[in-house]
Amino acid sequence: MRRLFPLLALLPTALLAQTAPAPVDTVDPMIGTGGEGHTFPGATAPFGMVQLSPDTDTSCEIRACYSHAAGYRYDDPTIQGFSHTHFSGAGHSDLGDVLVMPVAGDTVSLDPGDAKKPGSGYRSRFDHKTEVANPGYYSVKLDDANVLAELTAGTRVGVHRYTFPAGKAAHLVLDLRSSLYTYPGKILWSGLHLRPDGTLTGFRETRGWAPGRKLFFAMRFSAPLTGHAFVDREEKVVYKGFQGPGRGSDALDEKLGRLLEARLDFGALAAPLEVKVALSGVDENAAVANLAAEPGDFDAVRKRTRAAWAEALGAVEIAAPAATRTNVYTALYHSLLAPSVWSDADGRYRGPDDQVHEAKGYTFRSTFSLWDTFRAEHPLLTLVQPERTTTDVVKSLVASQQASPDGILPVWQFAGRETWTMIGYHAVPVIADAYLKGIRGFDADAALAAMVASADHRSYGGLGDYIDRGYVPIDKEPEAASKTVEYAYDDWTIARMARAMDKIDIAARFEKRAGNWRNSFDVKSGWLRARKSDGAFRVPFDPTAINYGSDYTEGNAWQYSWFVPQDQAALTAVLGGDARTIAKLDAMFDFDNSKVDYSHAEDIAGLIGQYIHGNEPSHHVAYLYNYAGAPWRTQARLKQIVDSQYKPTPDGLAGNDDLGQMSAWYVFTALGFYPVTPGSNQYVLGRPFVDKAVLNLPNGKHFTVEAIGLSDANRYVAGVTLDGKPLARGYITDAEVRGGGTLRFTMAAVPNKAWATNPAARPFSISNNGKH
């Protein structure tokens, strides 16, 4: 069928808004909740501290929690409760704090029960047909309790609304034992305090993924308590507390212990029960203050959050078929969930030293999955949230380094705590990319000092040997091949920022280190390989082997041999030139995996040959044909990836979204360009997947992308113009995007093998001195 959507490319932006649902109504938070996407469907504000969402199962131990890393899994038949903190698409589990579950009737179980045995506990069956999920709102009918549960959230508050059956006693179970990854042995301590005004406050400290994480909460109810019980399941002692309405004004009850629960009674209610919960990393009084900072009932909070999402998602306007619009706007939504707010309304937060600090003039952010997100997530934020979020991010990263007992920038941080998960010092390219794009509002000298301190931290991840030898030796440090090339790229971004700041000595030192990738590249075999302390490459060698803790990080030689984003031209030369590079890229995508078993590797998903889209080391690879003079091959591969890896369904993400990285890749790719090398101030051109897109930039300007003749058949770029003038190169600059204008692709069924092929038209590499 002939598509009519290309005609929309000719319509004014204002008219586009009238012909399709608003972005906020196009998002589907259920995408990624099945398969290996690890997203959650619940309510949250943009970058909110609170992610109030259903948990279908939390009774897991260590890596068994992988499938429930977000708490919710689409194919589960029951909901255990609604907790207030979740990761979006992480490859590791934690959080799931302060779980609340409504119970109706005379009997209240304090155990979740068995999902296979209805009525065995407080968990409830549900039907997906009753679920509603959109930005800032989630609802579901709990079948066993016969309760309608609705959730919304502000920045630091979550609001529940429960409609109980008429005439039935209403109760809440508050379970502080429940957690993702930490249950039950890793909960160190917790507390419950019922205050005279009826406010329930509490805390818990956990040792899960992050050590010694402290979280505090304050909870208020729209109806008075008629009774309660605080229970320490470790002691098996029940504290009945006060009974009957009206006695709460002069009553105070508290309980400290390791495995605490509360039963909260409200009697039969004539109206829905609203429960408002605020979080803090500082203390219980700070959580109470956060409650006051976001006034209003359920509907008021929901309205504010919907408006915040409408503004955030309005950064991009899309004309495309309905399924594509849903995919793009949901990807943008997922890209705006982290790094999440961690400081309180008064600016205080708990830092990596477990001390309370104050963010003056900015909002402290945490939840940094930097090995994943430096690639596309943070570059996307520099376009859609440069001042509001990126400046906060840089200030937060530097503040974390200054407060860190180890003196290093965050690696994988959440709730202000460091997990030391993954490799590299990838806060460095995030900071450098922001500075080089002209984003200011932070202390550049302090930022550069933090970057250098991290890169010179000899006790971290084999850096001492890397500094001394120019590579990380595998007999002294695991994942040595990956660490060598990732350190080299990070070093290049330090050099770029230092040179822009006229810090010539620093720039020269790190420019030299940026070439260290060569020290682990075996020119004879054409593979990146791990070397030993004596200089020899480790044997035996199998480029398809993936073993955690071995030569590579969540990948193998097929993926990591392409990681030289700062100098792809040099890599092309090492591989023997354009033709051999193109042939090796094709061999990667066309590889026959029938005899390869990756069942032991959890994060290996979305395979197209040895290209693994479900994990980050492959994310830039499809664009590398451009560096070898074959951009039409990039265009074909992008079509192959998008068609197979993204769908508007619960299993629509091939792999973990990783705090927005998978989604940000798709947003950029749908627009027709991608930041292969953050820090270069260039975006490599691919091909668009939307008929028209308008980036509404914070500086008031608009950058428009148009695809003329786009269809399934017309998958190749016939030609490109920028502001009406032919564009012969295969990239655009960040300044061109921020300056506003129109990038127009003319699509065709056959490739244009002459466009953007000569060396002068290729994207940045150190070897061409960035002149192209």
Automatic annotation (TrEMBL):
Keywords carried by this UniProt record: Glycosidase, Hydrolase, Signal
Keyword Nucleotide-binding included in the entry's annotation: no
Molecular function as annotated in GO: hydrolase activity, acting on glycosyl bonds
InterPro entries linked: 6-hairpin_glycosidase_sf (IPR008928), GH-type_carb-bd (IPR014718), GH92_a_mannosidase_put (IPR005887), GH92_N (IPR041371), Glyco_hydro_92 (IPR012939), PNGase (IPR050883)
Annotated Gene3D superfamilies: 2.70.98.10, alpha-1,2-mannosidase, alpha-1,2-mannosidases domains, GH92 mannosidase domain
EC number: 3.2.1.-
Taxonomy, superkingdom: Bacteria
UniProt feature coiled coil, ranges: none
Enzyme class: hydrolase
One Pfam family matching this protein: Glyco_hydro_92N
Annotated ranges, domain Glycosyl hydrolase family 92 N-terminal: 27-280
Sequence ranges assigned to domain Glycosyl hydrolase family in this UniProt record: 287-748
Residues in the signal sequence: 1-22
Protein name: GH92 family glycosyl hydrolase
